[in-house]
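FORM 7B: Structural annotation worksheet

SECTION A. Query
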Amino acid sequence: MNQAWSDDRTEINQQHTRRTQGFNAALFGKNRTTMETMMKNRVQLMGNLGRDPELKEFEGGKRRLRITVATNETFEYGHGQTKEDTQWHQVVAWGRTAEQAAQVLKKGSRVAIEGRLVHRSYDDKEGQKRYVTEVVMNQFQLMENTNAPASAAVAMM
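SECTION B. Predicted structure
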């Protein structure tokens, strides 16, 4: 390997490291480690439920809730033309969060969700390996619909 090229590459890597450290210090300040830990796997969504929640109880009393949330984004392209893009997210909640969500959420509900992203696999009935990406919800907030009374909003649970 050419020594001059290697030295240049090392200098570029060092400059990048200094810039990154400066950016992180400016963004996170003294709490950088705490902020990095909190933000490692964090998902926040705001959208509408695509169907009624499915609450299932397992042996031992553990409960799981499944919902689908649609998020919409509108963007412009070309000569002022707009397009709306809808993404569907599979969301699960466990325990107390599942119970609370089942009581207040229904198809069409506007909801803010916070949780973590999980990838898992399983074998279906035919023995095929299936892969799933879902958000494991740890808190939510029912948002006020524009056509609902203001009292419909509830605090973050």
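SECTION C. Observations
The first strand starts at residue 43 and ends at 49. The beta strands are 43-49, 54-57, 63-77, 81-94, 110-123, 129-142.

SECTION D. Sign-off
Analyst initials: ____
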